[in-house]
UniProtKB/TrEMBL annotation:
Protein name: DMT family transporter
PANTHER family reported for this sequence: AMINO-ACID METABOLITE EFFLUX PUMP-RELATED, INNER MEMBRANE TRANSPORTER
Entry keyword Repressor: no
Entry membrane topology: Multi-pass membrane protein
Name of one Pfam family that matches: EamA
Keyword Disulfide bond included in the entry's annotation: no
All copies of domain EamA, residue ranges: 32-158, 170-305
Organism field: Streptomyces mirabilis
Localization (cell): Membrane
Amino acid sequence: MSAVTTPRTDTPTATTPRRRTALDWRIRFGALSLIWGFSFLLIKVGTEGYAPFQVTFGRLLFGTAVLAAAMAVKRERLPRGARTWGHLTVAAFLLNALPFSLFAYSELTIPSTLAGICNATSPLWGMALSLVALSEDRPTRRRVAGLGIGFLGVLTVLGVWQGFHGLDATGTLMALLASLSYPIGWIYVRRTLAGTGQSHLSMTGAQLLLATAQLALVTPLFTTWPSHFPVVPLLAIAALGALGTGLAMLVQYGIVAEVGPTTAQMVTYFIPVIATAAGVAILGESLSWSTPVGAVIVLAGAALTQARPRH
């Protein structure tokens, strides 16, 4: 559930030949857009019955279970080496434990529609950071313009001319920090774990396992055991983990392997649209004109930052 420069594929992988499955990739692409778009709604429903850390822990637990089952079916083993596990621990924090928790906390005070749009700023943060941290990412006029346009869209969403009236500053900041955490994590992974030769499934499974362990340690310190277990929020957490985290990663990896990351990353531009539609239609969240207009500007800027020069 993230807007991505190369969507969730910066986790180091072995070279994988393109493959085709019985289900057309366009159908899987649409399903992935829906799953990640609805994830913000599921977070909102989950936090109505459980503490944010509990929502995140449940999400990671169910997601890890799905990947563990996939590894068992494919007879994949967890990666080896203390160095690899050390770097995966940091990646798990930056790409899973931290952003998932921040989004859960943010939706206590902001609508799921706003959280989904904040998520779409990840390519903008990634572009800005890569210009500093990755020497191979050279700035171009088009990409710098996209960066400026994108952040203009963020200001439009927030209604800066109204002094951010009606928005919870803390919740909005948490959502933006969650979106910033993703590209920081991708850059870290790219610098430390690229070329390990491990399979994508093995590395991602280990990463989610470590993130689950991190939340297992943190959650009891900041929350109390629920006195009762509301069914609907619990089902939302289970769907968020099994579908929005575990299954979504498997589907996305299949799309990347078949049609490449450039096409797969287009899912980024559907997520805020679906998140907004779901929040308004199902949760009855209000929507001012600046939200969709700003979202369009954000996505236009993000698209420009992803443009590559033609060869």
